[in-house]
Amino acid sequence: MAKLSEYERKRDFSKTPEPAGGKAKRNIFVVQKHDASHLHYDFRLEAEGVLKSWAIPKGPSENPEDKRLAVMVEDHPLDYADFEGAIPEGQYGAGTVEIWDNGEYENMRTIPMSKSIEDGKIEIKLKGKKLKGNFALIRTKFGGKGKNWLFFRMKD
Ligand code: MN
Description:
Blueprint: H1 5-9, E1 28-35, E2 39-47, E3 50-56, E4 68-76, E5 85-87, E6 95-107, H2 113-119, E7 121-128, E8 132-139, E9 148-153
Antiparallel strand pairs: 1-2, 1-6, 2-3, 3-4, 4-9, 5-6, 6-7, 7-8, 8-9
The chain binds manganese (II) ion.
Manganese (II) ion binds at residues 34, 36, 40, 42, 55, 93.
């Protein structure tokens, strides 16, 4: 799948236990705590047959005042939503990955998620174990070559 070419290029599947593909799931999200060279949280959202992915250095916050930088990274395969384990030394993203939260999400906008991503404005209701409620991901105009987004809880 062309969407996953960057993901595949960065990894040697004979050396990393990370998944290479995956079958269709339904509107799921996952937050993975990734203790790599810098601890961060990876937020992944099922859309367009892959997991659209952002690295959130400080992790998600439940406080609407707390807008967290979320850097868009390469699409990941759907099976990555279940991945936990250790990525070996010398491999891309070496370190441990654990699932911090997961569940289903609802698209709060009336347009398809692919269009929301293109627009740089995502509004979703998260139905996780930790994250519950309406959250937004908004692409910022500053820095990061269009990869910088803000992740935050929307005011009720
Ligand atoms: Mn990561």
